[in-house]
Amino acid sequence: MAIETPDKQTAVIDRHEFWMRHINAWKHSGQTRAVYCEHHGLSLQRFAYWRKRLKEKTCFSPTLVRIPHEIMRQAATSPIRVVVDARYVIEVGDGFSSSTLARVLDVVRGR
Prior knowledge:
The chain has helices spanning 6-29, 33-40, 44-55, 69-74, 98-108, and strands spanning 80-84, 88-92. By secondary structure, it is mainly alpha-helical. A two-stranded antiparallel ribbon has the order 1-2. It is elongated, with a radius of gyration of 17 Å. The protein starts with 5 loop residues before the first helix and ends with a helix.
């Protein structure tokens, strides 16, 4: 198993988020996939690929990483976004309870 560099991980997350936003926007648009893709300049085949990939939740395996205190101090006023299973986004604000977050993640993951 290869270890991805932070740049590659960022690119995967950016692609994932890009397609997740388009798929969610399409669901609320009332348009067919073909019309939505044409209107937004997207490949219908690529759209179908990402729709299936995100639906199957195989985009990437979530990994927990320790964030250095310096970064946390800089971001103290900004919430942290946690994406779970390509379906849920949890925003965690300053002063959150780690035990509550752990319970929320268990519920979201169906444990």
